[in-house]
Design goal:
The chain is α/β, with parallel strands linked by helices. Strands 3, 5, 6, 9, 10, 17 and 18 form a seven-stranded mixed β-sheet that branches. Strands 13-12-11-14-15-16 form a six-stranded parallel β-sheet, with helices on both faces. A three-stranded antiparallel β-sheet has the order 2-1-4, with no helix packed on it. 23% of the residues lie in helices and 26% in strands. It starts with a strand and ends with a strand. Helix 2 crosses helix 7 (299-311) and helix 5 packs parallel to helix 6. The longest helix has 13 residues, at 299-311. 46% of the residues are buried. It contains eight helices and 18 strands.
């Protein structure tokens, strides 16, 4: 490969800031690998969980991060047929069609830097063929990374996991990137009543503008249940709750708030050791609680479908707010992501 090294943000120690440094690339691409140059990358809550080791001890340090991005193909390895040099691609963590390639091995000062099938916090990235989907346009570059995770996850949650329809009454807890997208896809499905719950009062106007029926501040979950009961007419039950924060108290809140045959879908992931307490008897009579894995997204199908919604005017990129940062400011962007008060953080590499 002509590109021998690149700049990357490396997780060296759990709970610490990422270290910006130069890493060396392998001498050549392996079967099914693709070399891309990053244009933009999103920052997802999953990366916050990785930095904090929310799911348990990290056995792969040091390693690279990032799983949603927009890039251009520089070189393809043996066996790759899905894309060619010069193609624009969405990078996604959910597997699509194509070869499941061996993860690359980068190095830093002669020490191995680990990486998975896709990483996006590096200016040049070697990714597996089944983690890319070609797109025809390079615009809007700032929002296109959303197709790699938040938009496709939201679509899958609404269509596949929650099976939302016009007879449902929906509550969304957490109005970040995924919660925003869930609201908009639910509106397209004709869900008449959608309640958004979030700890940031500043998000109220945006939620209502995008079609939420009501907004509840989640500072006090007991008080929120009372407000919820007052909002809903007596003949209307809350049939579906989609939880995106991963906070245990919000999981319990969703369980308590939904109807006897309510459906709860957990998108957010609790920290290791955090345990929700629920009364399980309703589960024997039709109530359900399930965990989401990226909405069961199928990138090869879902990305073109979502792009068609934008092209037809059913969705507008203007309704998916992002906040852009230079790649060199990645640690600032991560802290803003932790605060939860901004749109999806997007890293720009040029």
């Amino acid at each position: 490969m002509e590109i021998k090294e690149t700049q990357a943000a490396i997780l060296v120690q759990t709970g610490s800031q990422l270290e910006l440094d130069w890493i060396k690339l392998p001498n050549q691409l392996q079967f099914g690998q693709i070399l891309v140059t990053m244009i933009t990358s999103g920052i997802c809550g999953a990366q916050i969980n990785e930095i904090d080791a929310a799911k348990g001890p990290d056995n792969f340090l040091p390693h690279l991060l990032g799983h949603e991005g927009f890039a251009q193909v520089v070189e393809i390895g043996p066996g790759v047929t899905k894309v060619k040099e010069g193609d624009f691609v969405i990078l996604h963590w959910r597997p699509g069609s194509g070869i499941v390639a061996r993860p690359p091995r980068y190095s830093r000062e002669n020490n191995v830097v680990n990486a998975g099938w896709v990483t996006t916090f590096n200016q040049h990235s070697i990714v597996s063929e089944n983690r890319v989907t070609r797109v025809d346009s390079a615009s809007p570059a700032r929002q296109l990374p959303l197709l790699g995770c938040s938009l496709t996850t939201a679509l899958g949650v609404v269509d596949r996991e929650a099976s939302l329809g016009r007879r449902d009454t929906l509550m969304i807890t957490g109005f970040g990137g995924v919660g925003n997208a869930i609201l908009q896809f639910a509106k397209l499905e004709g869900v008449p009543t959608i309640i958004v719950v979030d700890k940031h009062e500043s998000k109220r106007n945006e939620a209502l503008r995008l079609g939420a029926s009501h907004f509840i501040h989640s500072g006090d979950t007991k008080g929120a249940i009372q407000v919820l009961n007052e909002l809903l007419p007596k003949h209307i039950d809350l049939s579906v709750a989609i939880e995106t924060t991963g906070a245990v108290e919000m999981i319990e809140f969703c369980y308590e708030a939904t109807s006897e045959r309510g459906r709860i879908v957990l998108v957010g992931v609790p920290k290791l050791g955090s345990k929700a307490r629920i009364y399980t008897l309703p589960l024997h009579f039709g109530k359900s609680i399930t965990g989401s894995k990226g909405g069961g997204s199928i990138p090869d199908e879902d990305i073109p479908f979502i792009l068609n919604l934008f092209e037809s005017g059913e969705l507008s990129w203007n309704n998916f707010p992002v906040t852009t940062f230079k790649f060199s400011d990645i640690n600032v962007a991560i802290e803003k992501m932790r605060e939860g008060s901004i749109g999806r953080p997007i890293l720009e590499f040029f």
